[in-house]
Amino acid sequence: MSSKVTAALAGVLTLAMYSGLGMAAA
After folding, report:
1. 22 has pLDDT over 80
2. DSSP alpha helix (H) spans, 1-26
């Protein structure tokens, strides 16, 4: 697996987690 792909997946998961926390807080 390419490091770029790994970084992209990690970024998407992080954004999804933060957006989920934001919705829960709201």
Report:
1. yes
2. 3-25
